[in-house]
Amino acid sequence: MEQRNSPEVRIELWDEGDLDLLRQLNSPEMTVHFGGPETEEKILARHKRYYEIAQNGTGKMFKILLLPHLEVVGSVGYWDQSWKEESIFEIGWSVLSEYQGRGIATEATAKAIASIRSEKKKHKFIHAFPKTKNPASNAICRKLGFSYIGECDFEYPIGTTIRCNDWRLAVEEN
């Protein structure tokens, strides 16, 4: 998706050195749509999952870098998921508060979708599940061509049910 005046971003695989970014993304203002901050123990476990996911072949997590200065400004990723008895990719993103509203998440998510499409076609669809009360993330889904499926209850984090919108995008481009 080319847009005029879009920020230039690069996505790079998450690695062991990205724990500080995950801690920044775990702040109360950054987790308002995710049920609040996680404990340090859960952050350490999440960090390990993030940098091991590509090695396991179950998805990819990336840090988002804003060009030209390579500022680390957020994360985007996708992973295998089972949804309504179907195997899918789930995709998610998070951009630090001070960088929001610039189109960074849209550009980074488009790059993550391109990564999915460049791989062996393992699943038919990519789903995103932004909270119903998260207009920015729902707008990203619309901009990137996802189809709105409807509202649903979704468990995130594990043990917490939140009301989300289910957005779907075909892995194969038409």
Automatic annotation (TrEMBL):
Keyword Acyltransferase belongs to the record: yes
UniProt keywords, alphabetically: Acyltransferase, Transferase
Highest taxon of the lineage: Bacteria
SUPFAM superfamilies according to UniProt: Acyl-CoA N-acyltransferases (Nat) (SSF55729)
Domain N-acetyltransferase: 9-167
A Pfam match: Acetyltransf_3
InterPro entries: Acyl_CoA_acyltransferase, GNAT_dom, N-acetyltransferase
Family, per entry: Belongs to the acetyltransferase family. RimJ subfamily.
Protein name: GNAT family N-acetyltransferase
Organism (species): Paenibacillus taichungensis
